[in-house]
Amino acid sequence: MTAEGSKINIYQANNMNKNCYLDNLRGIDVRVYNEEVELEVRDPQQDYMLYKDTCAALAKLMEEIQELKAGGAKSVEIEERRTQCSVHFITLKKLNRLAHMRLKKGRDQTHEAKQRVDVLHLQLQNLLYEVMHLQKEIGKCLEFRSQHEEIELVSEEEFFQEAPAEISRPHVTRDDQHQLTLARLDWELEQRKRLAEQYKMSLARKEKIQKAIEQKREYLSSLQPGLQNIMQASLPVQEYLAIPFEHMQKQAEVARHLPPPLYVLLVQAGAYGQACDKNLSVSISGDVDEAKALSRPPEDSQGTSVSTEHSQTLIFFSSVQLDDKRKEMLRRHPLSLCVDLKCKDGSVLHLFFYYLMNLNILTVKTKVSTTTDLSGAVSAGELLNSESLLNCLYASDHGKETPNPANRYQFDKVGITTFGDYVSDLGHPFVWVQKLGGLQFSSGGAQVALSASHMERTMKLLRGRLQARLALHKQFSSLEHSIIPVSSECQHLFPAKVVSGLVRWTTMSCQEFTELGFVQHVLKAGLVHETDLFFMATVERGTARLRAAVVMNPRYPDVAPLFSLSLHWKGERSGRTDDNLQAMESEVNVFRSELQGPRPGLQLLTNQIQRLCVCLDVYLETESQVCDGSEGPKEFPREKMCLRTARGPSRLKPFKYNHPQGFFSHR
Amino acid sequence: MGPVELLHMSVFSQSFSPCGRFLAAGNNYGEIALFSLSAALSPDASEASQKPILNFTAHDGPVFSLLSTDTHLLSAGNGEISAWSWAELIKKSTKAAWTRKPSYETSLEIPEINAMIINPKDNSLIVGGGDNNIHIMDMETGIFKSVLKGHTDYIHCLCFKEREEEILSGGEDGAVRIWDSRTNRPVHCIEVFKYEECARPQFGKWISCLATDSDWMLCGGGPSLSLWHLRSMSPTSVFPLPGCQREAVFHQDLIMSVGEGPYVSHCLHGGTVKAQIPCTPSSLNTLALNLKNTEHRVMTVGGSSHQIDVFTNFSYRAFSLSF
């Protein structure tokens, strides 16, 4: 017992433990009552049996007490028993205490064990994590792609061949892959350094050369103004020597911007003019800047043109757009060629060639300028009309439709039905024009050989055409004055005295011609075309009047004019009803080769008319041979010398004139 | 031949081959064209079968007369007569078998030959033409044995009467002369224009067609076409045809004639005009009947056109051959 703990309290037993422990710590040696030690000694099973016994004893005592109380017993026995109960109670309390202490001990032990298990578990977890981590690291290491593998190394054989021994170290590297790779990398590095060096040197050289070039360029550009001065100074010399060098240069410069067909035409016409025909000249006209603009990407140029035209009223929006599209489709290239053909008498045929870009065809417009004034012939109005001057230069080449078959589809898109409507504005797209420009629509593309082969023939035809038309013009003004101009070379075709004379020479329209009664046989034979020219000649003698309807093909004089006759004398007769009139038609239509006159045969028409007059004379004079029983002198006395007035089953008259004997015979 | 030449072509003469399968036609340019009738008449005939199988220039001047013997085709050009073998022609060979000229007096202009007939009795060829005379040539020897003179203007047509062996000739002078072929002497001379019923003074007096059938004679030209009885030498019927007739034939009971005007006239012996069948040419020069071949029994007419009309049924035009 300590000084402090005077009373022994069961309930202070625990505290006593602590105190003892503390005292122990203070180094006080005391003998203590340690229940915990006692706990280890006692057997739980025995304690349990004690508990049961105590409870039973308690119960028994209580019974006794009760009996005693009931029986009115003495308090001493009750007190005794009470005391025993109290002892029992104390035992129970101790047992309870022990039970609690066992429980606590058990719990503590469990707790401790759990702690230990937790610690181990934690350690296990740590180790596991570490294992996983290491595994990942290993994996990463294994997957590691070192940059060195991306470097393309030369192959091993090459490496061993090329690399110097210090680097390749074959004795080591052949066995050891790692060393080999290292060696190869070393070699790669070596090589790259060397090449980098070379590269730097090359760059430096290039810079130097570049500078040299710049210098030379400056020098050259400084020469340019000097050359220009020389060129200017030489112009008067050129003119004096008649070598239009400068002019040709300029033309060549502009010619670079010509579209291919016009270029082909220019070159071929120029070549032909130089080689064969001194009277042919070619020049380029038009806006060069616009042509240059066309060859650049067409964003701005087209955009501006479209935008300006879009500022129209909204109501006509769709038709305006179509109109624009049409205009766009029919657009001409800004440059055009002008070819001048001069003839011996000074008249000039101007041909203007245009290129329609979207349609890929060439067109031509014409103009004739003559030295003398060509007026006074009313019937000749159509002859030199620029619309029809070049009609049918080659047979059936009307120039009203486009020769490019692809254009049909283009026209359908913008609603153009016939190209003929635009011909007067844009020019005629004759087939020979396309050929001169080297455009042939069965094969496509501009071909030079085609142009060359057609050039000579076409130029000759063009000149012939102009001359024929001019000659006709002159002849018509004569004919309108009732004079048939017969040249001296053709006088031998006709007798000296011709009494019938031309009284009228007028032009007719196609409509008027087809309405005539005596020309139906010509129409049925298909010898009349829209492009032909129609005339009416009236020959008279006395009361007889002969009307001749003339169909003239534009290709006169290559194609002869065709005459159809109608005679008004004692009734109306025509070539269909009267065999002799048919014979007269034969004389001028079938035997036309006799009437051509000197080359190029431009007198054909006038000779034909003169022959008609002669034949009418013969007809009228021999007709009076018929004994019609009428009295009085014959209207037309016989003046022509004929051997026989009728021959053959159809009793034809002698219309063939024989020179120089001067008589008429039958064919 | 260009289209202009075709437009001014006139067909003057025709002749069928002895077998009757071919037609030869002569035109004013001196050409002879051979047409195959069997091809043109076959059921699958096309445009090409109406074109000549052979076309060649036979003479300088127009071919006014064609005549077929049993083996040869005789053609008359400017004053000359050429013979062509039919067999050779069918094989397309154009070499003349012979060419002969009668002797002419004038030299300035070569006279044409307008008519040729054959005298089967003594195998002689009788030709008449522009020199106003009739020449007779022996076919075997080729010698011109006699000349019949009498006409004062050129001879248009000839005809032969087999029974009496008489030659009839009509000329521009308006006379129809009858000659005895054995004695070569003139027997009669009829001046048709002097007969009032026939005469048409507004046209003229020439006789351009003659035909005989036993005792009957047809003649026409300037005067109207008229039927004459030769024994009495008088006209029995006059046909009221408007134009001048150039060829007339007797066929069964009809008289068919062609001339000015684009039609073939069918007339009856009594003097009525039964029908006028229209044709393509505006006036006709020649009419031919193919009676030798029953399969190709056609009538062909030609005139001032390059087309020859073919009549399979004589009442209407079937189709046209063209040069």
TrEMBL record, chain A:
Subcellular location: Nucleus
Keywords recorded for this protein, A-Z: Nucleus
InterPro entries referenced in this protein's UniProt entry, alphabetically: THO_Thoc5 (IPR019163)
Gene Ontology biological process terms in this record: mRNA export from nucleus
Family designation: Belongs to the THOC5 family.
Record-linked Pfam families: FmiP_Thoc5 (PF09766)
GO MF assignments: mRNA binding
Disulfide bond keyword on record: no
Organism per entry: Cyprinus carpio (Common carp)
Broad class of where this protein is predominantly found: nucleus
This protein's GO CC annotations: THO complex part of transcription export complex
Protein name per Swiss-Prot or TrEMBL: THO complex 5
Automatic annotation (TrEMBL), chain B:
Highest rank taxon of the organism: Eukaryota
Keywords linked to the UniProt accession: Repeat, WD repeat
InterPro entries per the UniProt record, alphabetical: THOC6 (IPR042626), WD40/YVTN_repeat-like_dom_sf (IPR015943), WD40_repeat_CS (IPR019775), WD40_repeat_dom_sf (IPR036322), WD40_rpt (IPR001680)
Coiled-coil ranges (or none): none
WD repeat boundaries on the chain: 148-189
GO cellular component, one term: transcription export complex
Pfam families: WD40
The family this protein is said to belong to: Belongs to the WD repeat THOC6 family.
Protein name: THO complex 6
